[in-house]
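Lab meeting, item 3. Inverse folding demo.
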């Protein structure tokens, strides 16, 4: 039984009748999405302040970029001190899970899918309504969190701020 062999010259020949033009594989490049800017963070904060004022709520607003770094923060002079921590944790939770914290509350109940997740990480998550991820062109660019009111109020404040800014 003999096996066909190919000589080095015939394998590299580019003039044979059976050769084809090499093709370059096509790749779809991920489009670049403009990151969240400090100007947008300031606008989100101002919109959240207006929404909170409309509800008579005093609290703190946190804006994080896509990497979880602080891009903007404001605490009302009369807000409870812990509101700064809760607004930041809500924003961080929404960013890490790319979901509004209001949608995640049931997942951390004792019978929930993520019941151990709030304590599993170095940076604690907070599964209370008031954190919402921010998107541009379908891509995650940051998150907004509000703390200081009832969870339902905090959620209304961040969603109103996002609606005013056209981010979501």
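The presenter then showed the designed sequence:
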């Amino acid at each position: 039984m003999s096996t066909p062999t190919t000589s080095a010259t015939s394998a590299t020949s580019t003039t044979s009748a059976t050769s084809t033009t090499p093709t370059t594989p096509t790749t779809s490049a991920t489009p670049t999405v403009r990151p969240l800017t400090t100007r947008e963070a300031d606008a989100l904060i101002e919109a959240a302040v207006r929404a909170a004022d409309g509800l008579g709520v005093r609290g703190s607003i946190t804006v994080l970029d896509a990497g979880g770094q602080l891009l903007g923060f404001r605490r009302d002079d009369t807000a409870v001190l812990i509101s700064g921590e809760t607004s930041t944790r809500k924003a961080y939770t929404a960013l890490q899970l790319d979901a509004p914290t209001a949608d995640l509350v049931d997942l951390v109940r004792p019978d929930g899918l993520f019941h151990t997740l709030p304590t599993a990480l170095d940076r604690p998550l907070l599964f209370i309504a008031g954190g919402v991820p921010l998107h541009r062109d379908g891509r995650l660019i940051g998150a907004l969190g509000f703390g200081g009111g009832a969870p339902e109020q905090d959620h209304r404040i961040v969603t109103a701020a996002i609606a005013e800014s056209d981010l979501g």
